[in-house]
Amino acid sequence: xxxxxxANAADxxxxxxxxxxxxxxxxxxxxxxxxxxxxxxxxxxxxxxxPNARREGLDVLWALLVTESPTTIRDSLKGVxxxxxxLLDDRTPLPDDIPAHIERDFRGRICDLAYIRIxxxxxxxxxxSLFRSLDDRGRxxxxxxxxxxxxxxxxx
Length: 156
Known about the structure:
Layout lengths: L9 H4 L8 H10 L7 H8 L4 H15 L4 H10 L1 H8 L21 H13 L5 H6 L2 H13 L8
């Protein structure tokens, strides 16, 4: 019943904020069952969501689109470009819940994750290692360049 209306996806995004809970886990599972037509509802909620929901939601966005055709990906991203630009402007540090014994090569921000997810959708062969090796200023330059681009021209 929930999956029949893509707008219902919006109601599940808030549950992603409190990570590592059964509610968040179930919300993520259900969100990933939606189709590409739920992307506008998900992105609209991500623009006002907290950092955990944004982090999880960007992964959901990727999951919703990764298996779609290039045309569907292009059209979906183009349709939510304003919302994605808001996420690309978010310099909030990503929530750090990695165990202390794991070495971190990168301390990202919401905007960095949004950039990586968008680039992976636009080009499945995108190598994020160069982007991750840049400092904040360098990554900001790359993000600003992506924000100015027309997503429909980035797909082959």
